[in-house]
Amino acid sequence: MNTQTKMQKNWYVSVGAAAVLAVTVGMGTAMAGALDSSWKEATLPQVKAMLQKDSGKVSGDTVTYSGKTVHVVAAAVLPGFPFPSFEVHDKKNPTLDIPAGATVDVTFINTNKGFGHSFDITQKTPPFAVMPVIDPIVAGTGFSPVPKDGKFGYTNFTWHPTAGTYYYVCQIPGHAATGMFGKIIVK
Q: Which CATH superfamily is domain 40-186 in?
């Protein structure tokens, strides 16, 4: 094995160990905390209907939004997508292109039955650590409950971004480090 292959293997072992630790100590559930009034439950048909309300248009790996109010609908780990990832408009971790001055209404849905997730926005750039300290978070959901009983958690928040480059990330340990993030360009 060459040095690069050994480094990659060690990295995956470290990330895997962090994920196992999180599951073992119930971190996915514990970090989600109690279901507060900002988190609601939806069935799969309701989730599919919510996904259709995203107001962006897809071009390649970018979802472009226009207008004074935009609606972003992001889901964590929909069936058929790799874990961990976000999906917007059937794209894995797409770049979101948003007009400056727009009001951004975000709906975040956690469909992953094994973990809580978060959809948080930051200007901190990748790479992200396995045990992330992503500071500051400029908007977001915080940790979601773990879906159960055939229902999925979702919540909404509103963001008023200024021009710049941002990233949407999951703050569960190991998730952003293994690719659960995407770029937001506000211009």
A: Cupredoxins -  blue copper proteins (2.60.40.420)
